[in-house]
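Tutorial, part two.
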Amino acid sequence: MSKWEMVRLSEVAAMMTDGDWIESKDQSPNGIRLLQVGNIGKGFYIDKSERAKYISEITFSNLKCTEVIEGDILISRLPDPVGRACIVPHHNIKLITAVDCTIIRLNSQLCNKHYLLHYLCSPQYFWQIEKYVVGTTRSRISRKNLQTISVPLPPLPVQQQIADVLDQANVLLEKRKAQIEKLDLLVKSRFLEMFGDPLTNPMGWETRPLFATLEAGSTVTYGIVQTGDNVKDGVPVFRPIDIVSGRIPLRSELKCTTKEISSKYKRTLLKGYELLITVRGSIGDTFQVTPEFEGCNVARNIVPLRIDTRYLLYPFMEGLFGQSATKQVIAELTKGIALQGLNMSEFREINIIIPPLELQNNFVNFVSAANKSKVEMQRGLDTLELLYKSLMQKCFSGEMF
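Running the prediction step on this input gives:
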């Protein structure tokens, strides 16, 4: 329990409103930029300028859109996770945001935006969010419920102190994350050195369509469309958030669906040696399943691939799908299409390079050495994150100030 006064989120806002309903027909090649839920990270802004969407000034006026300005806080009302937030940085153009994003323009006399952003990343905040999340097909929170979220409100000087302390702790976390990212970049660079661009294939490797590189009898299809609510003693289900975090998940951490729902998706039931690939949202992220995950299933945004290891090795395929060229190919198949409408026949036909197994093995050995270093770094990061959460708890409860 915080010793500070607890107020509603709406009480610290000079403005709190949702973005605008912008349909495809309303968009333009340039003009006013549309920020979407994909631009909102957990505490940070994601630019994605190469995939930006726009509307014209005329459309802005006709739809009576709300302009988003530098320093506004955006909260995603959709996963993953529901309720994540970021501060809008400076742009050289006018901005609006989508209807599934909530805009908060703070009353600066009451609340420091950096203090609030830290709180919007805290376990205390997400515990409250979970109480209001609804939806089986796609989880969400309403703005009405978001407005009622409680926020501890110390005096402004204390808010600044808390923000400074948590900023410093966050710097340490980001440095460790950057080290891990450099290892990932090193692996990607090594892949290009050994095999070349998998799209242009400058080394002239044999190629086959994706379906022809799979184990006999397997197929290319996505998982459970509606997983339902998390149930006890059900079937664990991989979701994109379990893959894109970069952290190896535990079976016990996966949310579960009912055995009845899972049984309707037998083709994606895991045997314990698949490569999972995300095909919507954060496209092309991968995770190699190990035997401990046998019997689990996957959600609709994920395709499990059972590779024919006579031709291809799993770490090689992870490296291939990690390349920007491969991600772009998949993105073009999913752009602007609901997952149910994903053209799986085209996805099955994407060309896969088939270098000699000996060369693939050399790459696998390199990846194995890099992963050993990554595991040690990840352990250090996990420790730092636990300390960071403990520090947040002490800050927002008033124990430290």
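The CA atoms of residues 110 and 119 lie 15 Å apart. In part three we will examine how such features are distributed along the chain.
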